[in-house]
Design goal:
single chain
Length: 281
């Protein structure tokens, strides 16, 4: 009888533990499920900043952030890129119709964004899919774009297009590229724009004009100052530096050492080596 009673008790305890574990797993899965909005071609989710990569995970996000729809509209109007496959043809990331759809939805998304989450959205338009990560940090709005109209961003040295890019964003007034620093130096992220939280007054005036319909917003010319700064090494350095500059050999040797030690992969090595040589000449 004692053995039989012991077995019954052990069975009950095992059953309780099993159900407790199952309930915990289900609760965890529900808690970690990303909130999603699907509307008018837009699929939007909040993602924990730890899923955004090393750069985003280390940032302090200023969420939620109170932006007006007019403010968000101006941010979208300013986003411009250069398509390297079409001889550097400059285009806007979003059409005027796209902006009419996106601006009210993104305004609500920023207003309700969790403290440690960034906004990721895919937008399907007649031109293709555009994928964007956006968030607020240190009085800046970040726009990191991985795909524009079905064209993925790539800076691989194996890419056949000019400078190894499929496309790259073009900073305009109040914008700049996001960059990181490593052992080799400063790395510019040409698919990542930082914009002032409040766009320049010049754009604000045209966006607030009641006589101007939302589909006829005036788009200011591209401000190429940041782009020229990023190109300065490739277009002017040869005339400002002597070809006997010994720093090129030192940088190439450092780059080779990093590659030999496995700190950078083959693609990174070839891309940076090409960049150093092009900058020198």
């Amino acid at each position: 009888m004692t053995t039989k009673l012991f077995r019954k008790r052990r069975y009950k305890i095992s059953k309780i533990l099993f159900w407790s574990l199952l309930i915990s797993l289900l609760a965890g899965a529900c808690a970690s499920k990303e909130k999603m909005l699907v509307k008018d071609g837009l699929t939007l989710v909040y993602r924990d900043k730890d899923k955004g990569g090393r750069d985003i995970s280390k940032m302090s996000l200023n969420h939620p952030v109170d932006l007006t729809e007019d403010n968000v509209r101006r941010h979208l109007v300013l986003l411009t890129y250069e398509d390297m496959a079409l001889m550097g043809n400059k285009k806007f990331v979003f059409t005027k119709n796209d902006i009419d759809i996106l601006s009210p939805l993104l305004t609500k998304a920023f207003t309700h964004a969790p403290a440690n989450s960034f906004i990721h959205f895919d937008f399907e338009s007649e031109n293709g899919t555009t994928k964007v990560d956006t968030f607020a940090s240190q009085e800046k709005i970040h726009w990191r774009i991985s795909m524009i109209n079905n064209k993925k961003f790539s800076n691989s040295p194996q890419t056949n297009w000019r400078d190894g890019f499929t496309w790259r964003l073009l900073p305009r007034q109040g914008q700049r590229f996001f960059y990181t620093e490593n052992l080799i130096g400063k790395k510019t992220n040409y698919n990542w724009i930082l914009a002032n939280l409040n766009p320049p007054k010049a754009y604000r005036k045209s966006a607030k004009d009641k006589k101007t319909s939302p589909t006829r917003l005036t788009r200011e010319p591209v401000n190429n100052q940041a782009v020229k700064h990023s190109k300065r090494n490739t277009s002017k350095r040869g005339s400002s530096q002597s070809k006997s500059d010994p720093t090129l050999e030192e940088k190439l040797q450092l780059l080779k050492n990093l590659h030999n030690k496995g700190l950078i992969n083959d693609n990174e090595y070839e891309h940076k080596r090409k960049e150093l040589v092009d900058n020198f000449f």
